[in-house]
């Protein structure tokens, strides 16, 4: 009986395959990019999709794997970049913020169930947490290198231009994940 409980707590082989697939999809989507202060990428779409399709636990682990791959030098970030320097740079907080987005999604969906409105709420709150963490990170790193910068300025560079595109990506990711999950038997 204890063996079944221990196995259930861990990951099965298929879970590991899905987690690896999730990290690869986030990587590929990060390479689809329009350069700006914070690049416009499809990475956020992939994060939303992985969370909805794989669930909070596997989706969050996929995000962590993606961040670790980039930290250890695999070119998975925007513009085929990688390394701890990217994570410690101005926009690294937004990448790390994806982990918090996953954790927020996981907690909310676990508490309230996987209903559409709950997923939307969890993703919007997770995105807000990612924006907040990334913006705070940007302000600290930017200030060290260039001098202080105001919150309104950073929001105009790093958040406001992304809100509508990110909400569109959220809608597309949820729609696609909900249609593909039963076919792929992801849940």
Radius of gyration: 17 Å
What's the helix count? 9
Going across the major beta sheet, what is the strand order? 1-2
Low-pLDDT stretches: 1-7
Helix/strand order: HHEEHHHHHHH
Mean pLDDT: 92
User: Residue share in helices?
Assistant: over 70%
Multimeric organization: single chain
Number of strands: 2
Largest sheet: 2 strands, antiparallel
The percent range for strand residues is: under 5%
Provide a compact summary of the structure.
The protein contains nine helices and two strands; from the N terminus they run ααββααααααα. By secondary structure, it is mostly helical.
Write the layout of secondary structure elements.
Layout: H1 2-9, H2 13-31, E1 33-34, E2 40-41, H3 43-54, H4 56-71, H5 84-88, H6 92-112, H7 116-146, H8 151-158, H9 160-184
Antiparallel strand pairs: 1-2
Structural summary, described in words:
There is one protein chain. The chain is an all-alpha fold. The chain contains 9 helices and 2 strands, in the order H-H-E-E-H-H-H-H-H-H-H. The chain has helices spanning 2-9, 13-31, 43-54, 56-71, 84-88, 92-112, 116-146, 151-158, 160-184; strands at residues 33-34, 40-41. It has a two-stranded antiparallel ribbon. Strand 1 (33-34) and strand 2 form a beta hairpin. Helix 2 (13-31) packs across helix 4, helix 3 runs parallel beside helix 9 (160-184) and helix 6 packs antiparallel against helix 7 (116-146). It is globular, with a radius of gyration of 17 Å. It starts with a helix and ends with a helix. Residues 1-7 have low confidence and may be disordered.
């Amino acid at each position: 009986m204890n063996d079944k409980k221990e196995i259930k707590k861990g990951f099965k082989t298929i879970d590991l395959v899905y987690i690896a697939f999730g990290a690869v999809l986030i990587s590929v989507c990060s390479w689809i990019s329009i350069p700006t202060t914070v690049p416009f990428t499809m990475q956020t779409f992939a994060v939303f999709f992985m969370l909805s399709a794989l669930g909070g636990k596997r989706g969050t682990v996929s995000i962590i794997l993606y961040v670790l791959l980039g930290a250890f030098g695999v070119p998975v970030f925007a513009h085929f970049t990688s390394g701890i320097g990217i994570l410690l740079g101005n926009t690294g907080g937004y990448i790390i913020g994806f982990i918090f987005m996953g954790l927020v999604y996981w907690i909310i969906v676990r508490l309230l169930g996987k209903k559409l409105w709950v997923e939307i709420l969890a993703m919007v709150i997770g995105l807000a947490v990612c924006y907040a963490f990334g913006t705070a990170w940007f302000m600290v790193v930017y200030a060290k290198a260039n001098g202080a910068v105001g919150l309104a300025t950073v929001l105009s560079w790093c958040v406001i231009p992304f809100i509508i595109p990110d909400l569109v990506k959220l809608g597309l990711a949820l729609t696609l994940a909900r249609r593909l999950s039963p076919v792929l038997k992801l849940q």
